[in-house]
């Protein structure tokens, strides 16, 4: 059975710096019509920085949309012409002050595929070396190192609610013995 929806019209109602909002009319497989609200978002990266001593560097950041501070892994949107790997290296240096000696892509995820096109590249960063780049002037970030042994309790207690961070830390718990 073909479950694809056929686009009938597309209307961009907002163009922004990091996203566009589009309202599409579609025909469903059974012939009914529906409206789809789509957030067009540039690809982004997120980096799980793991130090040799077992510390994982999270960041604590106030997120205006939520009205609260949350714990996250470093992340950001690629600048024009920048590869996901280059973005990951830059964001890691800007947000936690390290350059990765080893940077490995561990997955690609869609954060909210029901309404957003954002593709997020997840990286594992190891062999960390101090290297600070200037932070973006609109970011106020506190580096929050935690030992990897605390990760299960942070997840279980609901302290990690950011999707990309939850995914990366869960991946880490599942595969850390294979990665050293």
Q: What does the overall shape look like? A: elongated
Rg: 19 Å
Helical content stands at 10-25%
The largest sheet has its strands arranged as 7-4-9-8
Q: Would you tell me the overall average pLDDT?
A: 93
Give me the count of strands.
10
Output the number of helix runs: 3
Q: Give the class from helix and strand content and strand pairing.
A: alpha+beta
Name a few traits of the molecule.
180 residues; 19% helix; alpha+beta; 3 helices; 46% strand; 3-stranded antiparallel β-sheet
Topology summary:
Layout: E1 6-15, E2 19-27, E3 33-41, E4 44-49, E5 55-63, E6 68-72, E7 75-77, H1 84-95, E8 98-110, E9 119-130, E10 141-147, H2 151-156, H3 163-179
Parallel strand pairs: 4-9
Antiparallel strand pairs: 1-2, 2-3, 4-7, 5-6, 5-10, 8-9
Summary of the model, kept short:
The chain has a 4-stranded mixed sheet with strand order 7-4-9-8, with helices on both faces.
Question: What report would you give on this structure?
Answer:
There is one protein chain. This protein is an alpha+beta fold and 180 residues long. The chain has 3 helices and 10 strands. The chain has a 4-stranded mixed beta sheet, sandwiched between helices. A hairpin with a 3-residue loop joins strand 1 (6-15) and strand 2 (19-27). The longest helix is centred in the C-terminal third of the chain and has 17 residues, at 163-179. It starts with 5 loop residues before the first strand and ends with a helix. The mean pLDDT is 93.
């Amino acid at each position: 059975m073909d479950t694809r929806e056929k686009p009938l019209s597309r209307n961009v109602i907002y163009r922004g710096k990091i996203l566009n909002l589009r309202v599409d009319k579609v025909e469903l497989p059974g012939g009914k019509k529906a409206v789809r609200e789509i957030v067009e978002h540039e690809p982004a990266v997120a980096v799980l920085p793991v130090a040799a001593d077992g510390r994982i560097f999270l960041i604590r950041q106030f997120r205006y949309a939520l009205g609260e501070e949350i714990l996250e892994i470093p992340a950001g949107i690629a600048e024009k012409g920048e590869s996901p790997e280059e973005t990951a290296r830059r964001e890691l240096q800007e947000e936690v002050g390290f350059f990765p000696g080893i940077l490995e892509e561990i997955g690609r995820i869609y954060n909210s595929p029901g309404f957003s096109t954002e593709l997020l590249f997840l990286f594992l960063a190891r062999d960390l070396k101090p290297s600070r780049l200037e932070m973006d002037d609109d970011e106020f970030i506190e580096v929050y190192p935690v030992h990897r042994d605390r990760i299960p309790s942070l997840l279980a207690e609901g302290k990690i609610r950011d999707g990309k961070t939850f995914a990366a830390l869960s991946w880490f718990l599942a595969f850390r013995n294979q990665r050293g």
